[in-house]
């Protein structure tokens, strides 16, 4: 039973066809990695699923309902962290909760719960620029999780991190995925990362991007 259906989705920008006739079915608790060369439309696909962009053709269904914009059911994590520099770590994580009108006391409780899960409770009152790259990305992950999304949409989330931090983040994410029963769409251009992180690896062709293969990972992480 799929929770996400991507049906005949294409996206063009003026003369550029970024994504062509893409179909993908994603089931509950799947961990799908999307692998492809730079510029093949991976970010475009993820942004369309997030509701941050619209397809030129085709549609996205979440639980059978058409996606028309962003929603708390999908949490997005970008390579560049995209934290709000004027908010401390706690308020970055609480941002979506505040937007939804959750009372302040509950915002703090939930934000602290997720900061503890990513090991950053002690840094709740720090500002993003006081943190290392790995810590900023853990904050972004806590922010995405705090809205209790069913899906995590991750766009090269560990691409800017050094090797050692990247491995720690991969373990952290797989633990969260397993415990919290999230469905993950994870974009990367790193073959090793795609095979290790995903239970299923979707390979895209160079521009215009379309799906070339969609297979179980040959060497998945033991948590799969
Ligand atoms: P990837 O994430 O695989 O590197 P993208 O989805 O970012 O690829 O981009 C796919 C193609 O679409 C690229 O050629 C890119 O230049 C183009 N593109 C993406 N977004 C826009 C935009 N907002 N305006 C014009 N062209 C874009
Ligand atoms: P980077 O992306 O810069 O490698 P890390 O997440 O590995 O970032 O953190 C770098 C340093 O920040 C660590 O060596 C440690 O000193 C400090 N640090 C990170 N997380 C914590 C934590 N939960 N508690 C205390 N110190 C931490």
TrEMBL record:
Residues 4-224 form the ABC transporter domain. It comes from the Bacteria. Belongs to the ABC transporter superfamily. The keyword Membrane applies. GO terms for molecular function: ATP binding. Transmembrane segments: none annotated. Signal peptide: none annotated. The keyword Transmembrane helix does not apply. InterPro entries: AAA+_ATPase, ABC_transporter-like_ATP-bd, ABC_transporter_ATP-bind, P-loop_NTPase. This is ABC transporter ATP-binding protein. CDD domains: ABC_NrtD_SsuB_transporters (cd03293). Keywords: ATP-binding, Cell membrane, Membrane, Nucleotide-binding, Transport.
